[in-house]
Design goal:
mainly alpha; 61% helix; 2% strand; globular
Length: 450
């Protein structure tokens, strides 16, 4: 019995199995070192799943951009199938690119510079005049798609990014900002809004891209004048060299645009104004919430007191959206500030002719960006809780219903541009060339310019 007391029980220990080898570069499991064919098959499937998931960050924006193109095609298919010049596309950008060459890049129009549009016109100038409208169209679509894809950047914090991108095409609008060069500036200004919301660049190519973006877009339209205070506020909040450089570049562009407007004596500097407080509130109510959430045929018949009430509610709602505590408050504040500055600039632009904004479809390009940013605010509200979430969802549904009720953009007549373009290419002096919407211009003929 004593012998048994000295015995020690021992148990076999489990030997730890070595982990399957991994690729030190990409972290993939190596099927070729697995001890069993079934294990090799499993590791191969795992690698395939990982590769598929790695494509998701690319597939999501790609599918969204494709859906945006399909939406725009369904709303005006003829601009894809038969691109045409629009207004100043021919009279200003095409004609001056032919006549003045590189000098046209620095030529102001309507009191300020349009650098991005001039660059596109200069790049497209060597094209045959027959395909020139297609060149302008595809350039404008490329800018639209780049703006939509940029919303998926990790540098910008937005909820429901696909919805924000698709709102570009789903927005209740006349569609005049799409498919032409003249009104591309209203879409391109969204690039400045993106940069305003984006975090500071961290990589060299991001720094270069941001500086090029703020310079080119700052010299395209008057948005640099409007947004410079916001970029200065942004730089003061972040206290970083990168944000200070971006704000400085935009301020320089704003000074150039402001000086050009002053030197050319644009009618936008008229000191006379016919705006009254109630008239301002009425325009805000009719052109923002009225055209956004009420079908067009009904919005055009709204009584005056109702549009004034809508304007007051819109103003109070925007102030609440900017000041309400919670997630993404800084983003909401900047979006509301952008809306306010654009509306203020529009009212100043039409201060000498306020009746020009009485018709809900006239000058809709001036309200495209404010309406889009309002929809973005509503989409961000979907991430909230309680009654605010349901209120935002209801307004988004109303905006979508309004858009569906007027889905097709107005169809413009075919102006038979190729027949005139061939005469221009032949060097003939062509007059009374028709353009949409009901414009005409003359071209002295290519290769025979003075």
């Amino acid at each position: 019995m004593a012998r048994w007391g000295k015995l020690k029980l021992t148990y076999p220990t489990k030997q730890r199995q070595p982990k399957p080898a991994q690729d030190p570069i990409v972290g993939r499991l190596k099927p070729d070192v697995a001890p069993h064919p079934i294990a090799r098959t499993i590791l191969t499937k795992i690698n395939l799943m990982r590769a598929t998931s790695a494509l998701q960050p690319i597939a999501r924006p790609a599918l969204t951009c494709l859906a945006l193109l399909l939406i725009l095609f369904s709303r005006r298919p003829e601009m894809f199938l038969n691109p045409q010049l629009w207004a100043e596309d021919g009279l200003i950008f095409f004609l001056q690119a032919d006549a003045d060459g590189a000098q046209a890049l620095l030529t102001p129009f309507s009191g300020y510079h349009h650098l991005l549009l001039r660059i596109i016109a200069a790049v497209a100038a060597p094209l045959n005049a027959v395909v020139l409208p297609a060149g302008y169209f595809y350039a404008s679509m490329a800018v639209t798609i780049m703006l939509a894809a940029a919303l998926f950047s990790p540098r910008i914090q937005l909820s429901f990014r696909p919805a924000c991108a698709l709102a570009l095409g789903l927005l209740p609008h006349t569609g005049e900002v799409f498919g032409n060069l003249t009104n591309l500036q209203w879409l391109a200004a969204l690039g400045l809004v993106w940069l305003l919301l984006a975090s500071d660049a961290t990589r060299p190519w991001q720094h270069i891209g941001d500086m090029l973006t703020v310079t080119v877009l700052g010299l395209t339209g008057v948005f640099s004048v409007l947004f410079t205070p916001l970029f200065l506020y942004r730089a003061g909040q972040r206290r970083s060299l990168t944000s200070a450089i971006i704000a400085g570049l935009l301020a320089c562009a704003a000074l150039v645009q402001a000086f050009t407007i002053y030197r050319m004596g644009s009618d936008t500097l008229s000191s006379e104004t016919a705006w009254s407080f109630l008239n301002t509130i009425e325009v805000i109510g009719l052109r923002l919430i009225g055209s956004l959430c009420i079908p067009l045929d009904q919005a055009m018949r709204l009584p005056l007191f109702f549009t004034i009430g809508l304007g007051a509610v819109t103003g109070v709602g925007l102030i609440c959206a900017a000041c309400w505590p919670g997630q993404q408050r800084d983003t909401r504040l900047l979006l509301v500030a952008c809306i306010g500055l654009i509306i203020a600039g529009t009212l100043f632009r039409f201060s000498h002719e306020p009746t020009a904004l009485d018709v809900i479809t006239d000058g809709d390009r001036y309200f495209f960006l404010p309406k889009l940013l309002i929809v973005w605010l509503l989409i961000q509200g979907l991430a909230d809780t309680g009654w605010r979430r349901w209120a935002c969802a209801g307004m988004c549904l109303a905006a979508l219903t309004t858009s569906l009720s007027n889905w097709r953009y107005a169809r413009f007549p075919d102006r038979d541009w190729p027949s005139y373009a061939r005469r221009i290419e032949a060097g003939e002096n062509v007059t009374a060339i028709p353009l949409n919407p009901d414009w005409t211009f003359s071209h002295p003929g290519r290769h025979h310019l003075p």
